[in-house]
Amino acid sequence: MRNVQIHRVKSSEVEVKDRLVAINRVTKVTKGGRTFSFSAIVVVGNEDGVVGHGLGKAHEVAAAVAKGIDDAKKNLIRIPVLNGTLPHETTGKFGGARVLIKPASPGTGVIAGGAMRAVLESVGVQDVLAKSKGSSNPHNVVKATFDALIKLRDPKTVARMRGIDLDKVFNG
């Protein structure tokens, strides 16, 4: 596996928008009956390359979403976005979920479904082709999408790692 650098971002530096990916009602059975609570997956991002995901659990939906937003703000990372799309094709996996993300030409839009769409829109990507394979569990799809996005490298990083000029990265 390649050496992947994660660019963490402090939540105080960025103004983020939140997107609710999924809410799940969970039940705990006790001798007094069933106790219901809620689990919420939330993705936050500034739509300019900074994104994070979080999980919140509480007895009310609003409280679960609020906890998810707080958790997501603690896990912000920076993703390279070039001209409204991604620098190169990438894949990610987590659990049974597999994702494939490809850059697209301008005007394509975000071709992705469900949990992947929320993550990619929060990053600020306007043109991308994405495919989710395997498990459709929103938890695993979000984490697999983050795995793919973390693997992205911008041309400046590639040039620095190879010890060459930025022009030679594109012109070989």
Strand tally is 8
Distance between the termini: 24 Å
Range of strand content: 25-35%
Order of strands across the main sheet: 1-2-3-4
Dominant shape: elongated
Catalogue the unreliable spans: none
Largest sheet: 4 strands, antiparallel
- Put simply, the count of helices is 5
- Percent of residues in helices comes to 25-40%
The Rg value, from CA coordinates, equals 18 Å
H/E topology pattern: EEEHEEEEHEHHH
Instruction: Tell me the structural class.
Output: alpha+beta
Q: Mean of the pLDDT scores?
A: 88
Key phrases:
172 residues, alpha+beta, four-stranded antiparallel β-sheet, four-stranded mixed β-sheet, 5 helices, 8 strands, 29% helix
In words, what does this structure look like?
The structure is a single chain. The protein has 172 residues and is of the alpha+beta class. The chain has helices at residues 61-73, 114-123, 138-150, 155-162, 166-171; strands at residues 17-30, 33-45, 50-58, 77-78, 90-94, 97-103, 110-111, 128-134. The strands form two sheets. Strands 1-2-3-4 form a four-stranded antiparallel sheet. A four-stranded mixed sheet has the order 5-6-8-7. Helix 2 (114-123) links the parallel strand 7 and strand 8 (128-134). The longest helix is centred in the middle third of the chain and has 13 residues, at 61-73. The radius of gyration is 18 Å and the shape is elongated.
